Amino acid sequence: MTVIKLCGLRRPEEIRLVNELKPDYVGFMLYERSKRYCAPERLTELVALLDPAITSVAVTVNAEPEFLVSLVAQGAVRALQLHGHEDETYLRALRSLLKTRLGHTVPLIQAVALKTAADLERARVSSADILLLDAQGGGSGTCFDWGLLTPQVRATLRARPWFLAGGLRPENVAAALAAVQPWGVDVSSGLETPEGCGVKDLAKLRAFCAALRAADAPQSN
What we know:
Oligomer: single chain
Shape: globular
């Protein structure tokens, strides 16, 4: 079954609904310049409402490792998504700090913006536990060229988990699964209200999960 990550949650009613829908991951944007920004104190309140079977993820952009360690130490999140220019030196330092301070690490998800085949090299060399392949300017609501994910590329990616992101919505998620067969899908802007203010449309949350699970279901003869 395809793993589901719903991202950019900000309101208690969204948490109550995802507890019903039961995605595998939910993401909270900890980047202050984002319209989906969730302040740390708000994050704590929302995670307290979240079903513990759902993995909470802090989505960050070039954040100080000390800040990320503090989020994990407080129990606010159980995975970290890196959506900036974090390189291998950063990943090693973050893992080392987690182990030193907490005695363990957590899954690191690295977002890689794809525009050309050359961008796949960053994904290939990343030591992140999970990759997230996105369009340029993550959260823009646009798809990248799925043709970049050739069968040969996908065979390489299957060595570890990877999310497909960028421009997904209830109407095209089935086509995405058929085209590139990702381990998981990540969606944020495709589930928002038309006003573009970073607020989730609860009906779209339901529709997306229903469409994905229908596409995943075994087809009867």
